[in-house]
Amino acid sequence: MTLSDKKNQKTAPQRGFSLLELLVVVAILTTVIAVLTDGIIQIQKKSASDVYKIGVAQERRQFMDQILRDLRQCGFPGLAMFDASASPTPTTSSTYVAGGLISFSSSAIQFEGDVDGSGVSEVYIQIVVPPSGTCPCSVQRGTVLKSVGGTPAYYTELDNVMSQNIFTAYKYDGSAYNSASDQLSSIKNIGVTLYVRSPQPDSNNSSTTYPTTTMVSEARINN
User: Fold this and answer.
1) pLDDT along the chain (223 residues), means of 10
2) Residue 123 in contact with residue 101, Cβ under 8 Å?
3) Apex CA 88: angle with CA 84 and CA 90, to 5°?
4) Neighbours of 110 (CB within 10 A)
5) Is 100 helix (H, G, I), strand (E, B) or coil?
6) Which of 18, 58, 66, 133 lies 20 to 30 A from 116 at CA?
């Protein structure tokens, strides 16, 4: 190789990336970043959805426990716990005596009982149906001291209930209560069924799929 050839080799221009190659690289990087970003977003959505489901399930369980605690206090303290020879004579109308179940239907119950240790209260639990006449509905609960009387202040305890019939009643012999032929005093057990829909769609399925939870329990009452 001559000195001239070496000089020409040193001064030869170095070849870089063409504009097309740069565009291809940018497109590939953009696609990879988009896929990674979408994956991270989906993971975050799933995590948030799972946390929300746990919170909602816990809220429903707490409300179910609240209903059962209330029902177990139905009719307590009853007339049998007081001395009949006392003056004035205790009756079910006495403000310190719980008269038990006052009314029952599949969508609403009313009873007397000392549910919080503050004295006998009148307790109301009912389904509230929206103007459309169809669920999702709400469950409201209200209490007022028997000694005070009047209409209680109602509070919404649970939303998105998908059935208007949440209560069932059973008599002492285990048969179902028939409001047309049976007396309220024959009711010994009350069953509660909560069929509740999540207010948010399931992120793991289509955007129109709403998870539902069914909780069933039963309480014996002093009636």
Assistant:
1) 54 66 88 88 76 76 92 94 89 94 96 95 97 95 95 93 96 94 95 89 69 91 89
2) no
3) 45
4) 17
5) strand
6) 58
Question: Which structure tokens are listed for 212?
Answer: 């539902």
Report yes or no: 149 and 124 within 8 Å, Cβ to Cβ. no
**Which residues are bridge partners to 191 per DSSP?**
168, 218
Could you tell me if 112 and 146 are in contact, meaning their C-beta atoms sit under 8 angstroms apart?
A: yes
CB atoms within 10 A of CB 215: 14
Whether 222 and 99 have beta carbons less than 8 Å apart is answered as: no
Asked whether the beta carbons of 53 and 198 are under 8 A apart, the reply is yes
CA distance 75 to 180: 23
Of 113, 142, 138, 137, nearest to 125 (Cα)?
A: 142
* Rounded distance between C-alpha atoms, residue 173 and residue 195, angstroms: 27
List Cβ neighbours of 126 (8 Å cut-off, separation of 6 or more): 107, 108, 109, 139, 140, 154
Q: Which parts of the chain are beta strand (E)?
A: 100-104, 108-113, 121-128, 137-145, 153-161, 167-171, 187-197, 212-220
DSSP symbol at 164: S
